[in-house]
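Input record, target 12 of the design panel.
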């Protein structure tokens, strides 16, 4: 490609409103332009990168036996109603009606559609296992789209689905995808870490996210640098330290007035006996139309993803003030579980307590009377806990549950997610297979997603400097840019064109900067768009040499004109090996 014939609209200044590095540089370097909030046009340079990422993904998916489909992005509401997700994902789903007023949606994912096809086509264990995948446009109505390609409303995803007859088959497919994902990210040049994650609305009992460490990431990751434990904050667990308070008197239960006190912090200031870690925080949630009390230490936050996993229900929400008042007789701020029983409080299904409250004594909590609290609360004596579980958000001050080392919290950008779905969707769509003995069992599914544009943005977040993007060779829009110093010099242009033609003939992605611009402008633009290698055609041609500069390490090497293609191809091989 000749630069003079290319559409590469570079900008000299950072665009107003762009905060993430990838957002700034992809705009400045002429890769993307915004159409509306959360919707971007991928310009020719970005499309070249995108296609390279897609080809790497396709190769690795095919390598593990994947078969490629193309499903419709437009889906009937019945699919989502059958799975039960029509209501649970309503806030992020684009919906519409056709001319017959039939409800439709733009797919934000395709579990339902793949399960539908499995129901239509799979009937025997002899047809399994299967790995099906597609690379398709998805739509998600993000409330706050931002950061360029990092949080958008339209994006490309590779989503694949494994279909197996038993758990052992799912485990094998899950591991195959895990290994394929690692290979994909390695080939794309990304530094990444697999972390344990919550399955969320997808369902299933096990999932892993693939994270790139960057301040632009919106996920909080708990990490142990000693043993390597890593988990999304929604899934992270910490070592539970048994509570011990030797020789301290166990106080009697006693009520005391707390007028106007509604929060943990207010109570800390109001009473010297009510430090945050000496309080019991009482939260009321609605799950499957029943109320549940969740107890936490006052200085801990509730992890809703963990709670949802514990309750094994699709949707949970905080109870309303009216629901709480009817069940416990008080409003939030004065709630507690002391003396709460199913007999006295029939609207309460169960009491769940976080493990960090086990054996705690002399605590403070609400008395279920407005503006009143209990002190001297001994949990084992005064509260009938139905279930002890880990439902709090892990903090940096916590210790690793594996090795006891102090945990750290860092920001991560999710570039892929794999799930063990189990039979949630196959049961909903009656996707069953007959066994050899004639019995019918639901197909066991796994789901595996990669965000294509996320990989592009992550690469820019990881590899950049003050001059622009530094693309990994494998996904760079061009591998080489040829830059004649003086376009008016016929000898320079002759050699530049000759090398350009040879590289094209050899299948190298090469860009010839034949613009009538100053050398400084050409160099700045080449650095900005991030081409891995630059060949400078200048006065050194009198010695039969051209200059080769690496964008990654800025190293410079003079190479014979007749050996340019050979030397570059050898350097490509070395660069890929180093990655």
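The sequence produced for target 12 reads:
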């Amino acid at each position: 490609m000749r630069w003079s014939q290319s559409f590469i609209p570079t900008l000299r200044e950072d665009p107003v409103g762009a905060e993430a590095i990838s957002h700034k540089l992809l705009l400045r370097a002429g890769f993307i332009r915004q159409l509306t909030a959360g919707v971007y046009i991928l310009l020719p340079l970005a499309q070249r990168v995108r296609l390279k990422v897609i080809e790497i993904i396709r190769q690795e998916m095919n390598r593990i036996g994947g078969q490629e489909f193309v499903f419709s992005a437009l889906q009937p509401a019945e699919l989502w109603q059958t799975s039960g997700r029509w209501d649970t994902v309503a806030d992020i789903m684009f919906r519409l009606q056709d001319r017959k007023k039939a409800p439709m949606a733009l797919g934000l994912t395709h579990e339902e559609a793949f399960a539908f096809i499995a129901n239509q086509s799979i009937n025997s264990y002899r047809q399994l296992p299967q790995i099906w995948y597609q690379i398709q446009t998805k739509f998600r109505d993000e409330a706050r789209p931002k950061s360029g390609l990092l949080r958008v409303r339209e994006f490309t995803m590779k989503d694949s689905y494994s279909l197996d007859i038993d758990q052992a088959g799912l485990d094998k497919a899950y591991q195959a995808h895990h290994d394929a994902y690692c290979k994909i990210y390695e080939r794309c040049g990304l530094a990444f870490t697999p972390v344990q994650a919550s399955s969320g609305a997808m369902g299933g009992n096990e999932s892993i996210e693939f994270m790139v460490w960057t301040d632009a990431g919106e996920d909080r990751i708990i990490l142990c640098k000693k043993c390597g434990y890593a988990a999304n904050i929604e899934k992270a667990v910490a070592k539970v330290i048994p509570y011990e308070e030797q020789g301290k008197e166990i106080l009697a239960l006693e009520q005391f007035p707390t007028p106007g006190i509604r929060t943990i912090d207010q109570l800390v200031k109001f009473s010297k006996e009510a430090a945050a870690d000496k309080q019991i925080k009482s939260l009321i949630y609605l799950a499957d139309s029943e109320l549940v009390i969740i107890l936490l230490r006052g200085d801990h936050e509730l992890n809703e993803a963990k709670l949802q996993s514990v309750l094994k229900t699709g949707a949970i929400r905080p109870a309303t003030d009216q629901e709480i008042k009817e069940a416990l007789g008080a409003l939030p701020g004065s709630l507690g579980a002391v003396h709460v029983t199913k007999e006295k409080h029939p609207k309460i299904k169960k009491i769940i307590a976080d493990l960090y409250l086990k054996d705690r004594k002399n605590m403070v909590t609400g008395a279920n009377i407005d503006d009143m609290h209990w002190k001297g609360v001994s949990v084992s004596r005064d509260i009938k806990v139905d279930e002890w579980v880990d439902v709090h958000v892990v903090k940096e001050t916590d210790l690793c549950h594996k090795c006891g080392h102090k945990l750290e919290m860092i920001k991560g950008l999710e570039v892929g997610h794999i799930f063990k779905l189990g039979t949630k969707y196959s049961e909903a769509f009656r996707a069953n297979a007959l066994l050899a003995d004639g019995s019918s069992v639901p197909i066991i599914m796994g789901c595996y997603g990669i965000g294509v544009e996320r990989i592009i943005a992550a690469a820019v977040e990881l590899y950049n400097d003050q001059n622009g993007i530094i693309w990994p060779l494998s996904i760079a829009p061009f591998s080489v840019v040829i830059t004649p110093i003086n376009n008016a010099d016929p000898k320079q242009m002759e050699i530049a064109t000759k090398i350009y033609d040879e590289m094209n003939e050899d299948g190298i992605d090469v860009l010839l900067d034949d613009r009538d611009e100053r050398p400084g402008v050409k160099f700045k633009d080449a650095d900005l768009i991030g081409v891995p290698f630059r060949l400078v055609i200048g006065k050194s041609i009198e010695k039969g040499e051209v200059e080769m500069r690496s964008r990654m390490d800025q190293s410079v090497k003079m190479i014979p004109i007749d050996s340019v293609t050979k030397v570059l191809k050898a350097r490509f091989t070395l660069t890929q090996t180093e990655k």
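The first strand starts at residue 32 and ends at 36.
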